[in-house]
Amino acid sequence: MNDVIKLLTNHRSIRKYSEQPVTDEQLESIISAAQGASTSSNMQAYSIIRVTDQDVRQRLSVLADNYSYVMECPVFLVWCADLYRLRQAYQQHGDPEQGYFGTMENLIVATVDATLAAQNAAVAAESMGMGIVYIGGIRTNIAEVAELLKLPKYVYPVFGMCIGYPDQAPGLRPRLPREAILHENTYQPDKLPAPLADYDHTMKEYITRRTDGKRTSTWSEDMANKLKAPARMHMLRFLESQGFLEDQEDLDK
Amino acid sequence: MNDVIKLLTNHRSIRKYSEQPVTDEQLESIISAAQGASTSSNMQAYSIIRVTDQDVRQRLSVLADNYSYVMECPVFLVWCADLYRLRQAYQQHGDPEQGYFGTMENLIVATVDATLAAQNAAVAAESMGMGIVYIGGIRTNIAEVAELLKLPKYVYPVFGMCIGYPDQAPGLRPRLPREAILHENTYQPDKLPAPLADYDHTMKEYITRRTDGKRTSTWSEDMANKLKAPARMHMLRFLESQGFLEDQEDLDK
């Protein structure tokens, strides 16, 4: 196992940061790494909003489930799926209204492009000794976040990311057994129960130890609790209102 | 710039592979790296199908836009967004029909989880001197691919990935100028034209040189050509048929 793979397997989310700043040069390296990631047909269908204004940061941290680390982290980036810039490019050669931007395919392409770039950024930051945490919470009040960041139509914020030097050393959270996520040639539903039971056991022990017995739930319990209630049901309508599925309707209906 | 960031900024897609095999141990490291990536609320909403059967590989390569390297690469992985396994976990504590799985939010969570894991796998492979290429082409005939791989409902193939030792050394493709993708505090549409014009110039030179003058198009021309026709319009209906938006409809309509 080489040093890069050690780094990749050693990730833990960091939610508390030291005073040590991230320099502009380091941030440039992080962004360069992001841009180095694969992108579908060179579309580069993502943008990054760096939030430096303390008022904007404060409002964002409240909108994003009130996580204090969104306010406190040295660098906060919002990773956006972006078809707007492609429309700008298209406009030089034709009327974007005649092109096909708002389709489920392009929504997936842009979401994937943003995520590939973000993960490269995460790895780059961690390679310099920093820690990161992804903030899915920016989707909780996504319309307000989009308004705050003045996102144009055809752009949506996929997640945020806090970056900074760690001031905590959380344990490594166990992952599902490999056999639960890796299949050969065909998906094999029948092989899932055993590794899921193993993982429930592992996670119950882990959580009990980590919380000094305050929590003793298994993974499947946690997942059931999470998924029994509707969450962020506004996402479909928000994406529709941002134009992400508008060309789909022309052909579908 | 440290070695990891050099690796991340030095990525190029590899479509031709040497005879050198990828060992099982190396593949285990790649999968471990994938599992090390961040995942939303520990949902780990993705699965990987490794395709080793040559008949399955052959059919996949035809379905995925006829790319020969899907057939020829030493390792081919299909990265799937997976809510099925979470339904299995849920089932131990309640009826999954009562839970909320098929929502746009969960579609995004699962797509992001699959992509974070895949990008870690890509970096891990490249750290061992291998090359990779993402295969979005598996979405071209996605229903047939899902059937071939026997994907259950609530699973969809996001992209494939070829992995192997490179037998080619393509040039590094220039990316958009940083100012075109990075904004501060708010999205600034007005600053896009200048860097897009610069990039068109850069890419025209790059493509002309790389193809010995056979192609001389700019980036914005390439994008306009790509986006002027509908592509993979079946994605929305396919995802609906796989159950990915079924709980959305309960509340929306």
From TrEMBL, chains A, B:
Domain Nitroreductase, chain residue ranges per copy: 9-61, 106-165
Q: Which UniProt keywords apply?
A: Flavoprotein, FMN, NADP, Oxidoreductase
CDD domains, per this entry?
A: NfsA-like
Does the keyword Transferase belong to this entry? Answer: no
Record GO terms (molecular function): oxidoreductase activity
- What is the similarity comment for this entry? Belongs to the flavin oxidoreductase frp family.
Question: What protein am I looking at?
Answer: Oxygen-insensitive NADPH nitroreductase
What broad taxonomic lineage does this protein's source fall under? Bacteria, Bacillati, Bacillota, Bacilli, Bacillales
